[in-house]
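Let us work through a complete example step by step.
Step 1: write down the sequence.
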Amino acid sequence: MFHGLFIYAQDYLYDDKQEVLNFIQEISSSSYQINILDTTESVICLISGFENIKATYFFNEARSCDSIVLVYDCLQCLDKHIERIVSDSRGRRKWIKSDEKLYFGKSWMSQSIRDKQVTFGVPAMQVHISEPEAIITIYTAYFSKEEWRIKKSQRKKI
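Step 2: predict the structure and record it as tokens.
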């Protein structure tokens, strides 16, 4: 169940804070040591074991998760973690690779008007390596209709 933290973390983007806390409580019964810090703006989950992971879920004013940051201390494990996230067949995101460090959800999740322009909110996952750590950030990227059309044409299926 421990691996669920980083595989299924993506499923909690846009979800209510209580749902995220319930999910973390479910995985807390694993053989890893898990410490949770719950603040108004975030839930930080520190996991110690074979590798150390810091999962931070950030929430907006409506208490909805608007980004997730996963920090790993095992660089050689990073490719395995990314592969598990993007190949999760029951996941809602269906990731498509844009480049070596950036993935987008297959379809847009929200549409809104910003500065009198229609924008599309698309789940995004970015990988950043800052030795000795690797960081995966899952968030919503916003594009105009034309920008999204260009991005879609440039994406590579995984």
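Step 3: interpret the result. The beta strands are 33-38, 42-48, 53-59, 65-72, 95-99, 102-105, 110-114, 117-130, 133-144.
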